[in-house]
Fold this sequence. Notes:
498 residues; transmembrane helix; Amino acid/polyamine transporter I; 2 strands; membrane; AA/rel_permease1
Amino acid sequence: MVAAPVGAATVPDKGLRPNSLGLLSNMAIGLSSTAPAYSLAATLGGVVAHVHGKAPAMFVVAFVPMLLVALAYKELAADTPDAGTTFTWGSRAFGPWIGWMGGWGLAVSAIICLANVAEISATYLLRFVGLSDLADDRLAVVGFGCVLIVAMTWVSYRGIVVSERMQNVLMAIQFAVLAVAAGAALWAVYSGRAGAQAVRPTWDWLDPTGLSASQIAAAVILCIFLYWGWDACLAVGEETRDSSSTPGRAAVLATVVLMGTYVLVAVAVQAYSGFGQTGLGLGNTDNHDDVLTVLGRPVGGAVLAGLLVLTVALSALASTQSTVLPTARGTLAMAIYRAVPERFARVHPRYLTPSFGTVVMGASALAFYLTLALLSRNTLEDSISSLGLAVAFYYAITAFACAWYFRRTVRRSLRNLVLRLICPVLGGAAMIWAFVQSAADMIAPDYGQTVIGGVGGVFVIGIGMLVLGVPLMIACAVTRPAFFRGRTLPRASAPEDA
Length: 498
């Protein structure tokens, strides 16, 4: 399939299954891709370590640029509902080179995420079924993690309807268990049954003042990982009913739901655990890797503890599958516009999914996971800390692309000025600040758990994966000059009356 040059709001048919998803199903894919239960379990302790009791404030602070970027996505999707998302919109606004790198940033973030969520899902599923010895065995965990990547790639390969049904179930379980756990913890705190370590919530927890720029940047870059994934809503936009409006609404609603959930759980965990250096206290570094499951048994006994372990496992499993979806569709769009090899444009005749791209995405994640897992577990853990760099990178491109693409329309109304210029520019600027500040901090050899060539391993992995896209892009430019000369996806801007 070959794309002719397109005009504004014209999207070439990619052979996907149209009108397969509604608003709730679209939201389910976005929410599941964020893996809220797993993200909280893996990240909340780290946020607390950086900002002490102001973790809820950091979730609100990080939500603001996320919402601003989501509004930019919404405006772009209404104009051009394309599975290529950042790649397509960045290319139309700024040209092929920036658009291609935006698409690469999305792919990098997905590959890094898939490796880590597969590991977490494997570990927690083994714990849930009572195989704790195997959960501590690196060979068993890595082997099981590889099986899960293959299995979730197969689910994505089988079709969007199968994927959507699975995501609906897994999302419902996650949010139900998180709500029950948070409610039970707060009830115990206010009824005086939580124990001596508990503290009552204060409004100061929602006040971000009194923190340094480095503290805020470190916490925000972790929170970007917590929120990242909602944009999967837009990647399946061409398969959604009312594709010009539903995916954008789903993205904005997903960010709001995530913010409410994260603040509620953070407040509940801080209140019940307290900040002591021992026991359940969040000052105890032994708890930082998983504050949710540590909290489960004291709050609700063996039943809630088991449910939280299962929820974290299912959350990571859902993210393993839903992360494949947008990236495979992104490479499909890139192939349609001749930015990558045409093989990526193959769509399965029966399942109507990007068959080749889905398989390559799964294989890439598998190779990345095996490489880092064989190096060391610390390297794998540092890779997830680097994820925020790739996410901030392509979110910034998308936000600024919105402002530039719609620049001629902003004088028509106050709505256009706010939603198409002010919000995207502020959101993009916040992402650039988080990227630059965090990258500067990550260079330090004591940042994270690994050091590579005298530089922090988190920096090397995060920046290195992004830089790897440059020679790949040059290779594509040499072999596929039509796209890079603006013939298949020319630069454009919205007309004044749009």
